[in-house]
Amino acid sequence: MYNIILMGVSGCGKTTIGEQLADKLGIPFYDGDDFHPEKNVEKMQSGVPLDDQDRLPWLVKLAEQISLMNREGGGIIACSALKQAYRNILIGAPGADVTFVYLKGDRELIADRLSEREDHYMPPDLLDSQFDDLEEPEDAITVSIDQEPDEIVDEIFDRL
User: To which H or E segment does residue 128 belong?
Assistant: First the structure.
Protein backbone atom coordinates (compact mmCIF):
# COMPACT_ATOMS: atom_id res chain seq x y z
CA MET A 1 0.00 0.00 0.00
CA TYR A 2 1.29 3.43 -0.94
CA ASN A 3 0.28 6.67 0.72
CA ILE A 4 2.22 9.37 -1.06
CA ILE A 5 2.29 13.12 -0.68
CA LEU A 6 3.79 14.81 -3.72
CA MET A 7 5.10 18.10 -2.43
CA GLY A 8 6.76 21.23 -3.74
CA VAL A 9 6.00 24.78 -4.74
CA SER A 10 3.22 25.68 -7.13
CA GLY A 11 4.11 24.81 -10.71
CA CYS A 12 6.55 21.99 -9.93
CA GLY A 13 4.28 19.39 -11.56
CA LYS A 14 2.50 17.81 -8.61
CA THR A 15 -0.77 17.24 -10.46
CA THR A 16 0.77 15.97 -13.70
CA ILE A 17 3.17 13.63 -11.92
CA GLY A 18 0.56 12.59 -9.36
CA GLU A 19 -1.97 11.54 -11.99
CA GLN A 20 0.62 9.55 -13.96
CA LEU A 21 2.11 7.91 -10.87
CA ALA A 22 -1.35 7.01 -9.55
CA ASP A 23 -2.15 5.32 -12.87
CA LYS A 24 1.12 3.39 -12.74
CA LEU A 25 0.54 2.27 -9.13
CA GLY A 26 -3.19 1.63 -9.56
CA ILE A 27 -4.20 3.93 -6.70
CA PRO A 28 -6.36 7.06 -6.54
CA PHE A 29 -5.01 10.59 -6.99
CA TYR A 30 -6.26 13.60 -5.02
CA ASP A 31 -5.33 17.17 -5.87
CA GLY A 32 -4.77 19.10 -2.65
CA ASP A 33 -5.98 22.26 -4.38
CA ASP A 34 -9.48 20.76 -4.39
CA PHE A 35 -9.47 20.74 -0.57
CA HIS A 36 -8.84 24.50 -0.14
CA PRO A 37 -11.67 26.49 1.41
CA GLU A 38 -13.15 29.03 -0.99
CA LYS A 39 -11.74 31.94 1.02
CA ASN A 40 -8.21 30.59 0.45
CA VAL A 41 -8.80 30.38 -3.29
CA GLU A 42 -10.16 33.93 -3.35
CA LYS A 43 -7.18 35.19 -1.37
CA MET A 44 -4.68 33.57 -3.74
CA GLN A 45 -6.60 34.76 -6.81
CA SER A 46 -6.28 38.30 -5.50
CA GLY A 47 -2.50 37.88 -5.25
CA VAL A 48 -2.29 37.57 -1.46
CA PRO A 49 -0.22 34.67 -0.14
CA LEU A 50 -1.74 32.33 2.42
CA ASP A 51 -0.44 32.39 5.96
CA ASP A 52 -0.27 29.57 8.48
CA GLN A 53 -3.73 30.38 9.84
CA ASP A 54 -5.22 30.20 6.33
CA ARG A 55 -3.57 26.87 5.65
CA LEU A 56 -4.56 25.11 8.89
CA PRO A 57 -8.15 24.10 7.93
CA TRP A 58 -6.84 22.92 4.55
CA LEU A 59 -4.12 20.80 6.17
CA VAL A 60 -6.64 19.29 8.58
CA LYS A 61 -8.85 18.25 5.64
CA LEU A 62 -5.86 16.70 3.92
CA ALA A 63 -4.90 14.83 7.11
CA GLU A 64 -8.43 13.42 7.19
CA GLN A 65 -8.02 12.33 3.57
CA ILE A 66 -4.73 10.60 4.47
CA SER A 67 -6.52 8.70 7.24
CA LEU A 68 -9.13 7.61 4.71
CA MET A 69 -6.43 6.55 2.23
CA ASN A 70 -4.80 4.45 4.97
CA ARG A 71 -8.08 2.63 5.55
CA GLU A 72 -8.93 2.22 1.87
CA GLY A 73 -5.71 0.92 0.34
CA GLY A 74 -3.60 3.99 -0.40
CA GLY A 75 -3.48 6.99 -2.66
CA ILE A 76 -1.53 10.01 -3.74
CA ILE A 77 -2.15 13.60 -2.67
CA ALA A 78 -0.59 16.59 -4.39
CA CYS A 79 0.06 19.14 -1.66
CA SER A 80 2.66 21.89 -1.40
CA ALA A 81 3.53 20.87 2.22
CA LEU A 82 6.04 23.70 2.24
CA LYS A 83 6.95 23.72 5.94
CA GLN A 84 7.91 20.92 8.29
CA ALA A 85 5.09 22.02 10.61
CA TYR A 86 2.61 21.43 7.77
CA ARG A 87 4.07 18.00 7.09
CA ASN A 88 3.75 17.19 10.80
CA ILE A 89 0.03 17.98 10.63
CA LEU A 90 -0.36 15.76 7.57
CA ILE A 91 1.41 12.78 9.13
CA GLY A 92 -0.27 13.33 12.47
CA ALA A 93 -3.37 11.63 11.15
CA PRO A 94 -4.26 8.45 13.05
CA GLY A 95 -2.56 5.49 11.43
CA ALA A 96 -0.76 7.67 8.91
CA ASP A 97 1.93 5.85 6.98
CA VAL A 98 3.08 8.39 4.41
CA THR A 99 5.94 8.77 1.96
CA PHE A 100 6.80 12.30 0.94
CA VAL A 101 8.08 12.87 -2.58
CA TYR A 102 9.60 16.30 -3.08
CA LEU A 103 9.48 17.60 -6.65
CA LYS A 104 12.43 19.96 -6.63
CA GLY A 105 13.09 22.65 -9.19
CA ASP A 106 14.76 26.01 -9.35
CA ARG A 107 12.86 29.28 -9.30
CA GLU A 108 13.54 30.10 -12.97
CA LEU A 109 12.26 26.78 -14.32
CA ILE A 110 9.13 26.91 -12.19
CA ALA A 111 8.46 30.58 -13.02
CA ASP A 112 8.62 29.66 -16.71
CA ARG A 113 6.09 26.88 -16.17
CA LEU A 114 3.75 29.11 -14.19
CA SER A 115 3.82 31.78 -16.89
CA GLU A 116 2.55 29.20 -19.40
CA ARG A 117 -0.19 27.82 -17.15
CA GLU A 118 -3.79 28.83 -17.81
CA ASP A 119 -6.93 28.59 -15.70
CA HIS A 120 -5.26 28.23 -12.31
CA TYR A 121 -6.01 30.45 -9.35
CA MET A 122 -2.40 30.60 -8.17
CA PRO A 123 -0.84 33.62 -9.86
CA PRO A 124 2.87 33.47 -10.78
CA ASP A 125 3.43 36.52 -8.56
CA LEU A 126 3.04 34.31 -5.48
CA LEU A 127 5.92 32.01 -6.42
CA ASP A 128 8.42 34.01 -4.36
CA SER A 129 6.23 33.62 -1.26
CA GLN A 130 6.18 29.86 -1.83
CA PHE A 131 9.97 29.68 -2.05
CA ASP A 132 10.23 31.94 1.02
CA ASP A 133 8.09 29.46 3.01
CA LEU A 134 9.72 26.32 1.63
CA GLU A 135 11.62 24.21 4.14
CA GLU A 136 13.15 21.46 2.06
CA PRO A 137 12.43 18.07 3.61
CA GLU A 138 15.22 15.83 4.84
CA ASP A 139 13.06 12.70 4.98
CA ALA A 140 11.58 12.65 1.49
CA ILE A 141 12.33 11.11 -1.85
CA THR A 142 13.71 14.13 -3.71
CA VAL A 143 13.38 14.19 -7.48
CA SER A 144 14.56 16.87 -9.89
CA ILE A 145 11.81 18.20 -12.12
CA ASP A 146 14.33 19.12 -14.82
CA GLN A 147 13.33 16.06 -16.84
CA GLU A 148 10.30 14.74 -18.71
CA PRO A 149 7.23 13.73 -16.68
CA ASP A 150 7.51 10.03 -17.60
CA GLU A 151 11.15 10.05 -16.43
CA ILE A 152 10.12 11.64 -13.12
CA VAL A 153 7.37 9.05 -12.63
CA ASP A 154 9.78 6.19 -13.43
CA GLU A 155 12.35 7.56 -10.98
CA ILE A 156 9.78 7.86 -8.20
CA PHE A 157 8.44 4.38 -8.96
CA ASP A 158 11.94 2.89 -8.82
CA ARG A 159 12.74 4.66 -5.54
CA LEU A 160 9.53 3.56 -3.84
Answer: helix 127-133
Determine contact, residues 12/122, Cβ cutoff 8 Å. Answer: no
79 within 8 A of 137, measured Cβ to Cβ = no
pTM for the full predicted model: 0.88
Domains and CATH numbers, the chain: 3-159 (3.40.50.300)
pLDDT in tens, 22-63: 999 999 999 998 998 889 888 877 878 788 899 899 999 999
**Cα dihedral value 137, 142, 148, 153, nearest 10:** -110
Residues 10/129, Cβ–Cβ less than 8 Å: no
What distance in Å separates the CA atoms of residue 52 and residue 40, rounded to the nearest whole number?
11
**All residues at 6 or more sequence positions from 90 whose CB lies less than 8 Å from its CB, including other chains:** 5, 59, 62, 63, 66, 79, 81, 96, 98
